[in-house]
Amino acid sequence: MRQPCQVVSKDSFKAQIGFARDLAKGFVLLEVLVAMSLILGIWMALVGTYQNLVLRTTQLESLRAQLGRGLDAFEVSEQARVSANTNTKGQTHESSRVSSRYRTQHATSQPTSKNQR
User: From first to last of its 117 residues, what are the pLDDT tens digits of the chain?
Assistant: First the structure.
């Protein structure tokens, strides 16, 4: 143990500085490890969220395609049923259940004339 008047030798002072430097290097290493683990954790969370989003989007697109095929099949069967039950005097697309995408679209770029013969 040192006495209050005792002078510390230069070797022990250098040893204390060296120990402090080693301790500082260990602390920096700890900081680097903590930062890397935080970055890795955030990266893993983002990848998991992205995978979940892609999975949900793929499932929704598959469901939409399946519903569209079912709707198309129903519309075709309804159109066949209606055309078989009615006479053929120009009554095409008479059923209100047939989608408007199967009906002909008229151009509205020309103004209508009231006195057209």
Answer: 455 555 555 566 566 666 666 666 667 788 999 999 999 999 999 999 999 999 999 999 999 999 999 999 999 999 888 888 765 555 555 555 556 555 555 555 555 566 655
Q: State the maximum Cα–Cα separation within the chain, in Å, rounded to a whole number.
A: 125
CB atoms within 10 A of CB 79: 18
Say how many C-beta atoms besides its own lie within 10 A of residue 93's C-beta.
14
Structure tokens at 67: 């519903």
- Paired tokens of 47: 């990848």
* Beta carbons within 10 angstroms of residue 98's beta carbon: 17
DSSP letters spanning 4-67 = TTPPPPHHHHHHHHHHHHHHHHHHHHHHHHHHHHHHHHHHHHHHHHHHHHHHHHHHHHHHHHHH
The 8 Å CB, 24+ separation contacts for 80-83 are none
pLDDT at residue number 9: 55
